[in-house]
Amino acid sequence: MKKKRTFPGASAYADRHGTRRWRYRKGGFSRELGTDYGSEEFVRRYEAAVQEHRTGRKAGAGAAQTVPGSINDLVASYYRTPEWRNLVELTKKTYKGVIEPFRLEHGTKLVVRMERKHVMAILGKKADTPAAANNLRKRLGQLFDHAIALDWIKFNPARLTKAYKIAGDGFHTWDETEIAGYFEEHEPGTMAHIAVTLMLYTGAARVDAVKLGWASIKATADGPRLQYTRQKTQKSNGVPVSIPIHPDLWKVIRDLPKDRPFLATAYGRGRTAAGLGNKMREWCDAAGLDECSAHGLRKACARRLAEAGATPHEIMAITGHKTLAEVQRYTQAALREGLADSAMQKLLARPNREQTVVNLVQWFANNSSNHMKGQ
Predict the structure, then answer these.
(1) Which is nearest to 272 in space by CA: 261, 258, 284, 257?
(2) How does residue 312 score in pLDDT terms, banded at 50, 70 and 90?
(3) In the beta sheet, which residues pair with residue 70?
(4) What is the mean pLDDT of residues 292-313?
(5) Where's the Tyr recombinase domain (predicted)?
(6) Are residues 233 and 288 in the same domain?
(7) What pLDDT shows up at residue 198?
(8) Residue 354: Cβ-neighbour burial (10 angstroms; 0-12, 13-18, 19+)
(9) Mean pLDDT score of the chain
(10) Which of 133, 228, 278, 333 has a CA positioned 20 to 30 A from the CA of residue 360?
(11) d(CA 294, CA 277)
(12) 26 within domain boundaries
């Protein structure tokens, strides 16, 4: 009969949820081994714990001496998931920019001991930059969801916290005055004019805009259409976008070279998303538009569609957003002023109203004049 393997130093305990867990203990040294005694994962953690106890060495995510059950261990495991592998490289880079600083600071901490109060404290350090805090909260939510899938924890402590309130998403939405001012500075035929026209009439993000070209245009019975898949999601249930080409956009791109992207450099090479962002900064500064950016054009596209009466689902079909919440975030603020005007017109139109619109305007003009004289 095969002798059953034993694991010296391994002992069981009940966590705060009553779940039976195992850990390796030697003196003051302790490492988590999980819940499945004798499993392949258990053995891997046990051997890593024994090795770490002997050598006293710790390492980062994915290294041989990663502490089992730690944040380092969790991040390394998450980087091996299909969810992570299916992300495009730019998204991975963005996510790592949030995950890695967190891992470097908290990597040796045990996941099972992370509670809501700990996550709140970590996020609280970024309270002065609420957008950054919310980005970290999203990534922690994904990491701890993975920990639940691994049966390391029962509840996601990040999901028990609230997002920080911020004014918009940190990117200014171009208004019509700014758009007109930009086109006054940058005339038709310039790359500055082409780039903004392309993004304004497609809602494409920088990472997609730099790849659009004649290969993206498909002839149909109803006229040419622009077709592409949003890069952020093209490897994971990507959102295909197929939109008719607006006449103002067609006028700008119809004579562009057929052998390169629309936004190619002067040398005919494609731009990177970061490169386009840098040029947009230069072009906007030249037009005196310090608040404007490429991302704000995507929001301006959604705003224009909303003001034209497009439904959230219609806007999603143009911009490639995946959820209604994303579209509503872009459009609600832009529509509020128009809804207020509409509501006031209805109030003014009611029977037996106290003042006509003309009287109201005259009253405001008189009082404004008197107020200015008193200054």
Answers:
(1) 261
(2) confident
(3) 110
(4) 88
(5) 159-344
(6) yes
(7) 97
(8) exposed
(9) 84
(10) 333
(11) 7
(12) yes
